[in-house]
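User: Predict the full complex structure for these chains.
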Amino acid sequence: MKRNSKSVANILTLLAAAGLLVFSSLSIAEEAYDEDTYGPKAPIVWAKPVKGVVFYHKTHTMDAGLDCDSCHNGEMFEMAAGTAEENEDFTMDSLYKGKYCGACHDGSMAFASNTRCTTCHVGVKGYNRLTGAAPQGEAAGGH
Amino acid sequence: MKIDDLEKLKNEGVENLPSEERRRFLRFGLAVTGVFVGGSVLSLTSARDAQSSMGPVPAAGKFPYTPHYTMVIRQNRCIDCERCMEACVSTNNVPSYGYRTRILEQERTIARGEKERVFMPVLCNHCNRPPCVRVCPTTATYKDKTNGIVMMDYKRCIGCKTCMAACPYNARYFKEENRAVDKCNFCVDTRLAKGEKQTACAAACPAGVRVFGDLTDYDSEAYKLIHRPEQVVWVLRPETGALPNVFYMND
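Assistant: Here is the predicted structure of the two-chain assembly.
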């Protein structure tokens, strides 16, 4: 009986320690996002050539471990948001040829640009949600 | 077991009966009564319906119309850019409150609890057995006898909206300007009659989601797509028995 209560206490301590670990790692994850290190927290949303495509810095820097100059290297993306979509060649075809997102999204480094379309393409509905734009007409909200 | 003993047994109910079992029982009943009334009156197990057990795509040569228009939706390519909706609106004079086609959005949980977006284009399915046509009291909506397009005769429509309630695909709206219900007609008046081979939405799609075609033309892309080996093809709401002509697939 005595031994039992001792082992129960042991388990409890272990559990508490584990809980503390999980809790502290959670609080670290919440607090540690630093815009200077990881880039803007707000999503980048493109409307051209199709509405709308989303990019999260967090997914690529903090989660995937890329540095700023992995993409902001004078070749792929300018620092100013929305610069790429002014280019004529900001298209899926360019991505398939290894430009822009296609430099990594080639099927070996990251999922290929011609797969999992809706991971980045959030559509007009997603664009309106992210930018706070009102949907056009009643059709967008049903009838 | 004697009848007295049987009566003492607890009723098992039908909750635990597999639906397959119940269906077989019902079908058996229908087969028996069907024989009595000549077979065609209770045609709930007709050959047309029996096709659905072999998947939603009718067998080659079993298309009731010539041309038999269809639209194949390659769903996983849809990115909700809504160019199809814009093209439809401008081609068919659709008011801002109405629609002939829409994109539905769905979120699906995939492995490791991640989420995946799915966009689903929806339009009139131009069913072989359209519930909207069956309920129309004035025959304002009807199947075109040649090509099977579900048409609207605005002059006959009294605006009762019963067809809107009957449509399994929510593909109809009431157009105030016409004082009549309006719906997709595969651009038959605005494009096909002028020699175009595609609907406005299919022509506008940048991702090749919508493939419009004729199922009696075995060389058409639409026919080939849904008849590819090992290709999974589905329709929306097959349980209504409407036998829709818009087929969905991923590729």
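Chain A touches chain B at residues 49-51, 116-119, 121-126, 136-139, 143 (CB under 8 Å).
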